[in-house]
Amino acid sequence: MPDFLSEWYLWIKSLHIAAVIAWMAGMMYLPRLYVYHCAAPDGSAQSETFKIMERKLLRGIINPAMVASFLFGGLLLVTPGVIDWSDGWIWVKLAGVLGLAAIHGFFSRWRKDFEADRNVRPARFYRLVNEIPFVFLLIIIVMVIVRPF
Description:
single chain, mainly alpha, 0% strand, elongated
């Protein structure tokens, strides 16, 4: 297996980056849909359209992209010679990934609230949380590229 991982390293890395881009695109768009959904009256055609859009975005793009990110990222982690586990940057990066996974879980829970017409949060709340995935992404990118420690 290590020979396979080393030989296919650049392919795995490429697929990981593509999956992360898809995951982040969805994670940055879903809260924007929530902002607009807040303005739609419960039960209206507009609200029902947002419910479909949110469900399809989460289940069709965000969830599979997260799974692919974890799969390819995990393969990179076990590729011989790629990670020095005594470096601090990898631990901060992995904490950022866990943070992204956590906010993903919150986004999923909030989608269920909208689905059941139980949302109690204002649009301003979703405008603010819309920035959280980017903050985690920035931390992860700096850790991987700069490797400050």
